Amino acid sequence: MQLEFLGTCAGMPSKHRNVSATAIRRSDAKGWCLVDCGEGTQHQLLYSELSLHHLHAVLITHVHGDHCLGLPGLLATASMSGRTEPLTLVAPKDLRVMVEAVQAVTRTHCNFPIHFLAIEDWSGQVVVGDFRVDITELSHRVPSYAFGFNEIPRRRQLDIQRLQREQVPAGPEWGRLQQGEDVALSDGRLLQAEDFLLDPGPPRRIVIAGDNDRPELLTGAVEGADVLVHEATYTQVVADRNDNRPQHSSAEMIARFAQHAGVPHLVLTHISPRYGDGPRSQPALSELEQEARAHYRGTLFLARDLARYQLEPDRQLRPL
Ligand SMILES: [Zn+2]
Question: Which of 90, 88, 64, 63 is nearest to 78 (CA)?
Answer without folding.
Answer: 88
